[in-house]
Structures are given as C-alpha cells and as structure tokens.
C-alpha cells in the first residue's frame, strides 16, 4: 500500500463515521471484468473494490500459472480424476447432500476422496443421477494437510488476510477451501462466515452466482422472519409467505468461467450453482476494511443467543458466560477469542511499524509482505474496533484476568504507535 492509498482509506472511514449508516446497499448494474493482470495494482483494487465493497471478476490470465489448473484438469477441460486419485485419494473429505435441506443448509458426511470420485464417475455415467443423491464436496481444508505450493498462489489483491494469518499463528484452523462437484451441485443462500470477504477461482467448470448486496436480504425474509433456502424457488413469489419480496431488487447474476476469479464483498448474501462439473478453490478473509462489519455481526450473534435463552437469565448465575460458550459453538468465535484475534494481528503490525520507523525497511508477516503504510492503516482500524469492544457491556463481563495483555494496555500501545506513525 502506498501513502496516498492509506490517506484515501482513512478519509473513507472517517466519512463513514460522520454519515448515518445506509440500511440497504444499491445493487450495481454490472460486475467489472478485469482482463489484464498488469492493468490493476493492489492500490487500484483496494480503492476500487475493497473500500466500496463491490464485486469484480478477474480473467483466467490471473491464474494461468497455477499448478491445479495444469494438473487437476484434463486437456478437454474436465476434472482430472486420475491425478486427483493418485495424489489425494486417501484424504478424507466433507461431502454435502444437495438434495436434503437441513435448516438452511445441507447435511454432511465424511468419506475418502477416492470414494467421492467413484461416486462422481457413476453420477456422470448415470446421466447425472444417483440413488445416493446429488453430493457436493465442500469446505475441504486441503492446505491444512498438504502443501499449497504446487496447487495455487495467493493473489496479491487478497494478501491482507487476517483470518488465515491468525489461525495459522495459533495452528488451529484455516479458511482455505476446495470445492468439487458435478453439474447440478449448489450452495444454498447464505452470507460468508463472520461477514468475511471471499474469493473463488474455478479450476475447471462453470458457476452461476446470484449476489445480493448488504440489506437486500431483509426483503427476502418470510412471514416468520427466516431467510430463504433457495432464492430461485417459485415460493418466493407468494406474497403471503414472502410479504416483502416485491421490495427486493433482482440479484446481480454472474457466470464464472473456468480459470476466472470472483471477489465476493463482505456481507453480500449469495447462492451458487455449478453449471458444469466444477472444481474451485476459495478463501474467506477479513482485514481492516471489513473488521467493523465483523464486530457488528458478532454483536448480533450474541444478542440472538441471549434472546434464545433469555428465560434462564435469572436462574443462572453464570448466564452471560454460557451465552459466550453457546456463541462460540454456533458462530466459531466469541468475544474473548475476538480480542485475541485483534491482539495477534495488532502486535504484528506494531512490530512492523517499529521496525519501519527505525530502519525504513519493509517488514513481513508470514508469507505476506506487510509494508509500513499497510500496517499503519491496519492499526488505525484495529484501534477503532478495539475501543468499541472495550466499552461493550457484554465484553466487560468477560473475565480478562488471565489475559497476557489487558485490552486497555493494548489500546494504549496502539494509540501510541498511531501517533508515532502519523509522519510516515
């Protein structure tokens, strides 16, 4: 990030604080298609897509060198089952049944990849039908058990990835996934975890995306307040079941071809259909640009838990603690872990800035180059959200006595480094 982009970004967020928040985002008329890798810098992407939170599609030229595009695909553009079996056949993968609705998702089972590929071959031979149903390999953490070096390289535009930086640091989880499935497999209507960004690359095959900007999903709720499972269902036209549907703008529809890369902005609900036998690689990621929406989402999640078990509030002395436990079970994170997430990311930026101010050099975080301008921007965003977290009544009830660094101390460090970095 250069200084001009950092100043531009900080003015952007200052403007957001001074305006009333928009309830519903306008649906763009189209999605930008970026053809030439040399035509878009990181700073261009940051200012043109991350900050305004709008999608774009990158051409296949951006992923031409990926090992997966060379080895996972046959010369005629189909999944290379032989290569996948030889290299990953014994790995156990999660598989969803697209024909069975379980709440607003699909039930999953686990099986060796070779069993799934044998099913897939039989599904094709059976004219895309099987007694086992329509099965979709989803959320396979391939890179947790295998090197990604020969599979793909992280695009520069998505390199400020705090989610994977944090979970790599504590060696617990990651948000890097492989999806594989035959024609007809699909993902029901949803927004990504923690209101993260996502990027998705089709290694082979074709996807159809239905994208709704933040706020539009509210008009899709049924008469009970629930979001739909399938936004293409004719049931949505019944105004008795979906009384506000007429107020929802049509979705932004994107057909993603083989090799192309789609950037899905934060908080955009979407539904995805595989139009051909398809393999894709996907990441979820958070950074300074969508940290505040993540924090807002976590507050909503805790409130929902509190509402659900409100009848036990007076009967349980540790009711607030149980709400945090349930929240983590349902959401994957609670307020305590959110603080630790901020702390890990913040401390690495503080080190980068301290080193940059002493030597004028660029620091590094993991495999991502982190320059001083990016670090300074990150610190400013963490400081704002941390200050909100500290004053939050529910966070005040969290026992922080065992924390290695008290939240107020971290906030003081961040405010001090912001002052020192102002001249960078």
CATH architecture of the largest domain: Sandwich
Alpha plus pi helix count: 13
Could you give the distance between the termini? 12 Å
Could you tell me the number of beta strands? 15
The SSE order reads HEHEHHEEHEHHEEEEEEEEHHHEEHHH
* Number of structural domains: 2
Report the sheet-strand fraction.
15-25%
Question: Structural class of the helix and strand makeup?
Answer: alpha+beta
Q: Quickly name the level 1 CATH class of the largest domain.
A: Mainly Beta
* Biggest pleated-sheet summary: 9 strands, mixed
Please mark out the parts with pLDDT under 50 across 5 or more consecutive residues, or reply none: 362-368
Adjacency order of strands in the biggest sheet: 1-2-11-8-13-6-5-3-4
- Could you please say which CATH topology of the largest domain applies here? Jelly Rolls
Helix content: 25-40%
């Amino acid at each position: 990030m250069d200084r001009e982009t950092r100043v531009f970004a900080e003015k952007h967020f200052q403007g957001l604080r001074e305006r009333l928040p928009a309830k519903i985002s306008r649906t763009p008329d189209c999605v930008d298609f970026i053809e030439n890798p040399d035509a878009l810098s990181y700073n261009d992407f940051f200012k043109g897509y991350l900050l305004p939170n709008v999608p774009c599609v990158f051409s296949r030229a951006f992923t031409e060198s990926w090992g997966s595009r060379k080895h996972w695909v046959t010369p005629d553009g189909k999944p290379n089952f032989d290569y996948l079996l030889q290299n990953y056949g014994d790995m156990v993968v999660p598989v969803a049944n697209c024909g069975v609705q379980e709440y607003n998702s699909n039930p999953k089972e686990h099986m060796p990849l070779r069993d799934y590929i044998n099913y897939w071959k039989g599904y094709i031979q059976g004219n895309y039908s099987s007694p086992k149903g329509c099965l979709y390999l989803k959320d396979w953490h391939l890179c947790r058990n295998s090197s990604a070096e020969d599979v793909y390289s992280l695009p520069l535009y998505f390199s400020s990835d705090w989610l994977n930086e944090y979970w790599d640091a504590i060696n617990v989880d990651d948000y890097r996934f492989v999806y594989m499935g035959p024609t007809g497999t699909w993902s029901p209507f949803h927004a990504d975890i923690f209101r993260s960004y996502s990027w998705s690359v089709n290694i082979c095959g074709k996807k159809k995306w239905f994208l709704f900007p933040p706020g539009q999903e509210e008009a899709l709720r049924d008469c009970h307040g629930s979001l739909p499972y399938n936004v293409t269902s004719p049931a949505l036209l019944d105004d008795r079941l979906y009384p506000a549907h007429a107020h929802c703008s049509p979705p932004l529809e994107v057909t993603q071809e083989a090799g192309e890369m789609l950037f899905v902005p934060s908080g955009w609900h979407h539904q995805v259909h595989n139009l051909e036998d398809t393999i894709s690689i996907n990441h979820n990621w958070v950074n300074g640009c969508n940290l505040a929406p993540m924090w807002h989402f976590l507050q909503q999640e805790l409130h929902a838990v509190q509402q659900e078990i409100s009848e036990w509030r007076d009967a349980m002395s540790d009711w607030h603690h149980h709400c945090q436990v349930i929240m983590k079970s349902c959401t994957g994170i609670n307020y305590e872990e959110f603080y630790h997430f901020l702390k890990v990311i913040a401390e690495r930026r503080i080190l980068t800035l301290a080193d940059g101010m002493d030597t004028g050099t660029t620091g590094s975080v993991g495999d991502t180059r982190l320059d001083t301008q990016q670090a300074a921007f990150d610190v400013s965003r963490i400081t704002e959200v941390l200050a909100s977290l500290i004053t939050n009544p529910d966070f005040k009830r969290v026992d922080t006595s065992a924390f290695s660094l008290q939240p107020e101390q971290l906030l003081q460090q961040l405010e001090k480094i912001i002052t020192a970095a102002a001249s960078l």
